Amino acid sequence: DADVTQTPRNRITKTGKRIMLECSQTKGHDRMYWYRQDPGLGLRLIYYSFDVKDINKGEISDGYSVSRQAQAKFSLSLESAIPNQTALYFCATSNGGYEQYFGPGTRLTVT
Amino acid sequence: KNEVEQSPQNLTAQEGEFITINCSYSVGISALHWLQQHPGGGIVSLFMLSSGKKKHGRLIATINIQEKHSSLHITASHPRDSAVYICAVRPTGNQFYFGTGTSLTVIP
Predict the structure, then answer these.
(1) What percent of chain A is modeled with pLDDT above 90?
(2) To the nearest whole angstrom, how far is the Cα of B76 from the nearest Cα of chain A?
(3) What is the distance of C-alpha A87 from the center of its chain?
(4) What is the mean pLDDT of residues A24-53?
C-alpha cells in the first residue's frame, strides 16, 4: 500500500464551488505539505504543517485553507474555486530531513 | 527569483545515449534531492546527496556543495527513462525549493 495517499485523484468542479482534497500518510512523519504544480512553474508551496497544532502559509496560500485533523491527515480546501486554480496538487511528508515523500497527486480542473 | 535552476528544460535523446541534467542553486544547503516525475504525474525519490557521488543502476548523481551545483547522469538511456526530473533543496529553515524540472524524452 502507498505510504502517502490522496483523494480524489481527479476532480472537475465549477467556479465558485467549495472543494476539499485529502491526504493521508502511514509514514509516521510529523511534517506535511501541500503543493501545486503548473506547467513551467515547478512545485509551489501552498501550506505546511509540522504537527497538529502548527499550520503555516506557503508562498501561494491565498484562496486556500488547510486542516490538520491528525498526525496522519492533512486536508486542503478551496473555499470558492476559480479557473486559475486548475492544477496538479501534491501532498508530501517529511521527517524533518532533506527528503520528501509525495502522494500520487490530484488533478483538479475548475470550469 | 528562482533559488533552483535546472538545465536543459527539455531534452530529447536516442536510446543508448549518455544524458546529463544540471541543477544549480543560490542558497546554502546541506543536501539536495533528485526526483523523477512519471508521465502519469507521480513523483518518486531518486537520490538524496550531500557530497560526492551516488549511483543507482544506470543513474549517477553528483554534487559540489561549494560550487552549488549538482548533475544527474543517465547511462545507456532507455525509453522508460522518459520522465520529468526535478531537483529540490532545503536550506536552513522549513521550506523546500524546487527546480522547474527537465523533461526527458528517449526515442527508441
Answers:
(1) 87
(2) 27
(3) 11
(4) 92
Residue among A40, A50, A99 minimizing CB distance to B45? A99
Looking at the complex, report in whole angstroms how far the Cα of residue A94 sits from the nearest Cα belonging to chain B. Answer: 10
Cβ-nearest to A98 among B31, B94, B100: B31
Three-class secondary structure of residue A51 per DSSP? strand
Residue B94's pLDDT is what?
67
Residue ranges of A 54-83 with Cβ closer than 8 A to chain B: 56, 58
Q: Is A39 on the interface with B (CB under 8 A)?
A: no
Contact by Cβ (8 Å): A84, A65: no
CB-facing half-sphere around the CA of B11: CA atoms within 13 A: 27
**pLDDT tens digits, residue range B53-85?**
999 999 999 999 889 999 999 999 999 999 999
* pLDDT above 90: residue B93: no
